[in-house]
Write a structure and sequence with these properties.
Mean pLDDT: 96
Strand order of the largest sheet: 1-2-3-5-4
CATH class of the largest domain: Alpha Beta
Number of domains: 2
Structural class: alpha+beta
Number of strands: 10
Low-confidence stretches: none
Length: 294
């Protein structure tokens, strides 16, 4: 897949500033961030506009995790990120051939992450489970106005519920988006954390809920695999009285991911409609027949 022209231009300018020679560059993944192979062994990650601080934090977190002995994707050793047309560009060591991790990998890695003592020199902010959700509702223009109004009210309700969460596990360093898709498992069985831009200080239950709801809300994770996840991590978040609030926030995020892309993608529009109908109680009780994002 050829690199879209805007990203090709940004990559070229950033490579020049970083004194990195590109060689037959190509696309690895296009999403909220563009992940591009600049040359064999070197990967460029281009953020959406206005994310320079988040990109700098991601690089700092990765370096810190490596120092702490946590397996994670590694940045190239140079001064970064670069800023090109308000897009932050960071540079990373390319991973060997890999696929998504397992739920056991998630449990092992986030247990190790949660056990770390945060460094006072690391620019970690507070966990924000609602980041960009207002914008995603506004971008969901293929949904009826009534549905978008409901989503705004639902988001307001969840913000209030988040502030009233009961006590739980002690706050710690969290990944912020811990699921099998953000674990890279290489052919030798090694697993690494990737996509560290949401790493922050917050409630560890947030990192547990993603796997829990893939069992309780959608049936994507089997009962046996979920029991193993709980055994490895050492805590079952579904037994906590705040679980329903975090579950509902996660489900809303998963719905709005599709809804924001629905205006330009008929398949994503169909899935967004299904997800919204489930959230609004129009499609019966959980588990719901959502299709996993790829």
């Amino acid at each position: 897949m050829s690199i879209p022209a805007p990203y090709a231009r940004i990559l070229s300018a950033a490579a020049h500033r970083a004194e990195i020679t590109t060689e037959d560059p190509g696309v690895i993944r296009l999403g909220e961030n563009a992940v591009l192979r600049a040359r064999p062994g070197v990967v460029a990650r281009i953020t959406r506009p206005g994310q320079h601080a988040a990109a700098a934090r991601e690089v700092a977190v990765s370096r810190w995790l490596t120092e702490q002995g946590i397996a994670a994707v590694r940045p190239i050793d140079l001064d970064q990120p670069s800023l090109v047309e308000d897009h932050a560009v960071t540079w990373w060591e390319e991973l060997p051939p890999h696929g998504p991790g397992t739920v056991a990998d998630v449990a092992h890695l986030i247990r190790a992450l949660h056990a770390l003592s945060p460094s006072e020199h690391l620019p970690l902010g507070r966990l924000d489970p609602f980041v960009r959700l207002d914008q995603r509702i506004e971008q969901a223009t293929s949904l009826p106005a009534d549905d978008r109004d409901w989503l705004r009210r639902h988001l307001d309700d969840l913000r209030a519920s988040w502030k009233a969460l009961p006590e739980g596990l002690p706050e710690c360093v969290v990944h912020g988006d811990a699921w099998v898709g953000n674990i890279a498992r290489t052919e030798d069985g090694a697993a690494r954390l990737i996509d560290l831009e949401r790493c922050s200080i917050g409630r560890p239950e947030w990192d547990l809920v993603s796997t829990a709801i893939k069992h309780t809300s959608f049936g994507w994770v089997s009962a046996e695999d979920y029991r193993h996840f709980v055994e490895v991590y050492g805590h079952d978040v579904t037994t906590w009285s705040g679980f329903a609030t975090m579950r509902d926030i996660r489900e809303l995020r998963m719905c709005l991911y599709f809804a924001q892309h629905a205006p330009t993608d008929p398949n994503m529009h169909t899935e967004a409609r299904l997800r919204l109908d489930c959230l609004r109680g129009r499609s019966g009780p959980r588990p719901w027949p959502w299709t996993p994002a790829t």
